[in-house]
Amino acid sequence: MTDQPMSQWPSAGEFVIPVREGPERVRITIDDREVEVPNGELLIRAAQDHSVYIPRFCWHERMKPVGMCRMCLVEIDGMRGLQIACATPVYDGMVVHTQKDNVRKAQDGVLEFLLINHPLDCPVCDRGGECPLQDQTLAFGPGESRFVEEKRHFEKPIDISDLVVLDRERCIQCGRCTRFAAEIAGEPLIDFGGRGELTEVITYPDDPFTSYFSGNTVQICPVGALTARPYRFKARPWDLTTSETSCVTCAIQCRGAIQSSSNQLVRLLGVDSEPVNQGWLCDKGRFAYEWVHGEGRVREPMVRQEGQLVETTWPLALDAAADGLRRVLETHGPESIAVIGGAHGTNEDAYAWARFAKGVLRTDNVDAQLGDGLPAPVVIGMPRARIADLDHAAAIVLLAPDLKEELPVLYLRVRRAAEELGVPLIDISARDHGLTRHARAVVRHLPGSAGEAAAEAVAKIDELSAGRTGDVVVVLGRPSLAEAPEATVHAASVLAQRSGVRFLSALRRGNVHGALDLGLAPGFLPGRVTLGAGREHYSNVWGAAPTASGLDTEGILRAATEGSIHALVLLGADPLADFPDRALVRSALEHVDFVIAVDAFTNASNRNANVFLPVTVWGEKSGSTTNLEGRVQRVAQEVTPEGTPMPDWRIAGELALRFDADFDLETVPELQDEIGKVVPAYTGIGASLLSRARDGVVAPVAEHHELLVLDAAALPLTGASWEPIRPGTIASEEGLASHLGTGVVESSGTGSSTTVKPGLTEVEAPAAPPEEAAALGQAARAAGAELPELHAWDGQAEPPSPEPRDAYALRLVVGRNLYDSGRGTAGSPSLAPLAPPPVVLVHRADRDRIGVPDDGQVRLTSSRGTVILPVRADAAVPQGVAFLAFDAHEPGAADLIDIESPVTDLRVETLR
Amino acid sequence: MAETRIVTKRLRDHPDDSWTIDRYLQTGGYEALRKALTMTPEQIGEEQVKASGLRGRGGAGFGTGQKWSFLPKDVYPRYLAVNADEGEPSTFKDHMLVERDPHQLIEGVVISAFAIECHQAFIYLRGEFALGAERMERALAEAAERGFIGKNILGSGFDLDVVLHRGAGAYIAGDETGLLSSLEGERAMPRIKPPFPAVQGLFAKPTVVNNVETLSTIPYIIERGGEWYASLGVGKSTGTRVFSVSGHVERPGNYEVELGTSFRELIEGLAGGVPGGRQLKFFIPGGASSPWLVPEHLDAPTDMDYVQNELKSMLGSGAIMVFDQTTNPVQVAWRIAKFFAHESCGKCTPCREGSTWMEKVLYRMANGMGRPDDLDLLLDFGDNIVPGLNAPFAQTTICALGPSTMSPVVSLDRYFRDEVLQMIGAPAASAVEST
Ligand SMILES: Cc1cc2nc3c(=O)[nH]c(=O)nc-3n(C[C@H](O)[C@H](O)[C@H](O)COP(=O)(O)O)c2cc1C
Ligand code: SF4
Ligand code: SF4
Ligand code: SF4
Ligand code: FES
User: Fold this and answer.
1) Which end of chain B is more exposed for a tag (fewer CB within 10 A), N or C?
2) Which of B183, B205, B347 has the most A C-beta neighbours within 10 Å, making it the best mutation to test the interface with A?
């Protein structure tokens, strides 16, 4: 297991397991069976790893034990009374009894206590059907309660946040939710109030449970006390089908179990993938499935006729698209065609589109980023770290936007590393953000001078990481959209000079890393090879490749404005909403003759497209994606789309056919196999490996084969959704619902003593021995040797030279809020109301100098434009800086940012 | 029969000013501290306190020197927390010691802190003790002024800061881990053990929690030696204890006697016995948490081990509650159950749910709504709080409050079963047997 041994938990006021002296593994006897387990492991976990399920409510593998519910009582020879297995570490020679009559009696007793005040309103409870209390009672309950008193009453249910509803009568006071909030999210916004029987989960007055992670409490609540607004009363567990998948709302690609009922997605549960998300999801990712069924989906292809987009058939639409492209190609050549987007699709989509654009149309004007990321040569070629490296890093350096807003579950991981695992955190930033308070050193700088800050940070790294092993992990993203990427790249180059530095990308858009890896970047061909290095190879496999290096999105837009781009494919892209300079996009779109939209929705940018080709989206198609650490994992189809949308990859193939290029790729596995064969960094990552690798595959497999866990079969190891759901345990067709049913209900034979046990399977040696993984790595290396060499970033960069800020101006910092005007939020009815209205945040002194009260309107003028917005004092913003969240609102940051300048300075005036 | 006054000597001899620094100094105060500062920590802890056989006066009766010796080597800082929360119903000795002899406690604290190499002590004082807080605060100021606490105490180089913290009125804050949670600013909820406070206590640092009376005794052990202290008392219950005697007695109050003194001497001798010529019906020997005893136990010694092993009860907090023949035992049981149900912190299931269930059933029983099998029901589900009804050796709860809830029920069953059954109109067990 790669799990952090719990013995390394540092001391807070609460429970800490003593580090045990002695051997690494010890032998213990559980119910007369001797097994070998790691020394000091908690008994409940050690037993579970050997198929003995000790019942529990309060214990959760990812949190510290509190011993509240008392359900896990067992007998241990030599200890008086019964012990709680969830807080007892094993030791050599421990002899445990989990099935003796006294143990079962005590466990039954605890259940009875829990039930006396329980409302038993199962028929109207979301948890009904996957509830440990219910299972137990239905199976063996005495039918009639011995409790004849009046039950405890609370008003029910009450909203504790915009998304979460609390029924205090159903609560069994296990403290999972409160501990999650305090321990994992670091936001102790819910707690216990009251005493004794009236103990209840409370929120504090004036301080609602506004956590980005609140949905996790719903998932881990063992009963129906916490329910999620979006899911309430939508389905019953036994009606659900489930597929294991990844959330692709952001680039972490947290593992999840997507569930549907009557062909509607209804719930996404977090799957506990140790290397990725450790079971957690953010609320945006958890609830953003709603947009899939949102208003305004385009379900049939359309072509423009007499100024109107009208529905047509696929053959006609594809012909129209191909004809338009062909005309431009013939008249103006490949360089006059451009493709923007592709970061929302799968790797198979990206590969097919790269092949069509670069191998068929032979244009290199292809970019999956929208001017809001970092240069592809850096992202593709930097020495990479993995998410799990954060846990043991010598130090973590943040040169990134606010992870809490942009990559929420990565925020949890970094926070845990800093708070629980003692990893020094160094923050290079222009303002305070979600992680600043966990940083041991903060290097504050004005946008534009990140390079100098990085030099200062190097000294901090040396100081704080002294005596620590592991690499220094730099989390590298675009800290501000109002700061040209050059400054960040320069800062990264300064950090890269230090030995033992690796980078973890913090680009946020869903599958941007997969898209870049598979060729949707100018100057690159699929597999992290440059155009120069890969041209020959791809000319051989594809029959053609671009001759000259192409333009990135900014270059494409400029060229379009200048009249040299004549056809544009918007591949799930809305540059008017996402590109930092709105005026440039508008003018570019006005100048392009022929626009093809490949999208699921119409948006501001593709509204005037000549051809609209509707696509299937997440949840409606299978494939694979690559997350920010380069981990390739599968996404699943769970519902069938309405209408006739097609996956992007099929559209690319159909268009290619119209250019006499037959990809001969009819299915996703076929695409995966081609990728696994011809794409350098992805050699070996074909359909079969993807289907067997429990935690996905980190590319290139030749370097990362030791991370492979190859599970032979999907074995349900989990109880219900309130228990950690392990990767690889959801049988794809039958789904979670059916494997919940495999919970074996066992009776002790005495009639009264009972335990409900989920199906457990002995964890034997890994299904695939490490030799097989090594062999796979070797094979990949051998195959890769014949392929072009992977690109490596040389770590060199010139510093930008921003003008000094004049004393009256404020330097603009632009980042994103988790809830914004993007599709994930705006298209999901439950999330849309959570997006905050636009407001400029400044230091109190600056606000006073401007002379407006909070929320007063001000005029903001940059070299690019003028907008009027409300302003507010904010403690996180230092003097001389103004923060504005990026989103599609007009007017907004995209009307101010000067992308030609390294930084954007603002004059801020009152309206008088 | 007379008292053996050690910790109560000054306050009895000088009822008008025992709490002042002048009186304290004039009666030999802080001399033990001077002596202790010339000793080594080992000499104090190992040679004197351990040898004295002193056992905690807070309730659990754990060996004080032994508790100190559990502190892990070389782990600092260490903390000392004084348990002055005294919440056990009918216990009022710490109240008196804090109010009337605060310097005695402070001196005990400084010596103990020196012995355990701790530089930060906390006095967790029950919130309701307003006068105690006032006097303690004043005493701390005086002690600081005279160099008994603070930096470089009496020129020894030893530093100690003492913080007075007033509780907010929860009985459970008296449990040592509940106390620590409360001191940390959390809800007073007990924690699972291990880790024990000595290993990971306040702010996860090694911490000793000791009761007011325990620490007030320390100066005398230093002054006169552990052997002297061990010569008082009986068996492994050495020294004296302050018993709070209340209820149906002529002279309720605190009496300090050598351990081993019989209950009869305390109840009938010192406290003057049941008034009005009425008969003793039962008494609670060690606070509301302890199982009850009946007249046949009056001659038993106040020996912690004897009471626990032979009488299946405990000396607990040393509070003796006396009830005469007019008392309805079910009513008493209900009132105690109500207290525990109200004070259960709610953290663990058996106590949170069981204590209220118990209270509800006892309420019915005490108010004419009892059912014939109610007592058995209580015993049956109570067995899931205290397996085998064998406290303190078995409990399914986090702290000892849970099992305490069963003491009244167990007592009803032991001594008043027939009366209870009769009261609720069920055929008495003996009646059934005889037919
Ligand atoms: C529910 C509960 C309440 C307690 N209340 C008190 C109290 O008010 N005062 C006290 O000194 N000990 C109390 N104790 C005992 C303490 O936990 C602890 O054993 C004691 O303070 C240790 O000091 P000692 O070793 O000097 O007795 C209580 C224990 C429990 C379980
Ligand atoms: S709401 Fe749920 S998770 Fe929270 S304490 Fe109650 S039962 Fe446990
Ligand atoms: S952090 Fe990203 S991948 Fe994870 S649930 Fe949230 S949006 Fe989805
Ligand atoms: S036994 Fe009662 S008081 Fe003690 S922790 Fe459990 S609920 Fe709280
Ligand atoms: S699971 Fe062990 S006490 Fe709750």
Assistant:
1) C
2) B347
Check whether residue B400 and residue B426 sit in a common domain. Answer: yes
Instruction: Give the C-alpha separation, A912 to A42, whole Å.
Output: 67
CB A6 within 8 A of CB A65: no
At how many degrees (to 10) do helices A485-496 and A450-464 cross? 30
Top-confidence residue, A725 or A510 = A510
Q: Does residue B225 share a domain with residue B97?
A: yes
User: Which of B192, B355, B381 is nearest residue A67 as measured by Cβ atoms?
Assistant: B192
Cβ contacts of residue B158 below 8 Å, gap of 6+?
B37, B114, B152
Burial environment of residue A304 by CB neighbours within 10 A (0 to 12, 13 to 18, 19 or more): middle
* Same domain (yes/no): B277, B353: no
Average pLDDT, chain B: 95
Can you give the pLDDT at residue A759?
41
Nearest ligand, CA of residue B129?
1
Sign, Cα dihedral of A550, A552, A555, A561: positive
Which of A56, A66, A68, A70 to mutate to test binding with chain B, by most B CBs within 10 Å of its CB?
Answer: A70
Instruction: Render pLDDT for A31-66 as a digit per residue (tens, 0 to 9).
Output: 999 999 999 999 999 999 898 989 999 999 999 999
Ligand 3 binding site (Cβ under 6 Å of any ligand atom): A 247, 249-250, 252-254, 277, 281-282, 284-285, 407-409
d(CA A262, CA B92): 68
Minimal C-alpha gap between B284 and chain A (Å): 24
Q: Which tokens sit at A286? A: 């958890």
pLDDT value of residue A140: 55
- Tell me the CA distances in angstroms from A603 to A600, A617, A647, A807, A895, one per residue in order: 9, 16, 19, 40, 18
The type of residue at B193 is K
Q: Round to whole Å and give the CA distance between A823 and A602.
A: 11
Number of residue pairs across A and B with CB atoms under 8 Å?
132
Distance CA A493, CA A502 (A): 11
The type of residue at A239 is: D
| Cα separation of the two ends of chain B | 48
- Report how far residue A821's alpha carbon sits from residue A825's, in angstroms, rounded to the nearest whole number: 6
Q: Which candidate, A408, A407, A405, A494, places its Cα nearest to that of A445?
A: A494
Helix (H, G, I), strand (E, B) or coil at B269: helix
Phi and psi at residue B281, in whole multiples of 5°?
Answer: -100, -50
User: Cα–chain-centroid distance for residue A832?
Assistant: 19
- CATH of A302-373+513-785, picked from 3.90.550.10, 3.40.50.740, 3.30.160.340, 2.60.120.200, is 3.40.50.740
Which residues lie across from A814 on neighbouring strands? A884
Report the b/e string of A329-352 with b at 16+ CB within 10 A.
beebebbbbbbbbbbbbbbbbbbb
The parts of chain B modelled with pLDDT lower than 70 are 391-392, 426-435
If one counts the domains in chain B, the total is 3
The length of chain A, given as a count of residues: 912
DSSP reduced 3-state for B283 = strand
Q: What are the structure tokens assigned to A336, written together?
A: 């006059």
Check B381 against A192: CB less than 8 A apart.
no
The amino acid present at B334, given as its one-letter code, is W
What 3-state class would DSSP assign to A310? strand
CATH architecture of A382-506: 3-Layer(aba) Sandwich (3.40)
Mean pLDDT is lowest, of A95-104, A203-212, A667-676, for: A203-212
A774: phi then psi, degrees, rounded to nearest 5? -60, -40
CB–CB of A102 and B345 under 8 A?
no
Ligand 2 centroid–CA A218 distance in Å is 8
Q: pLDDT by residue (tens digit) across A588-629?
A: 999 999 999 999 999 999 999 999 999 999 999 999 999 999
Residue A218 is encoded by which pair of tokens? 């719903």
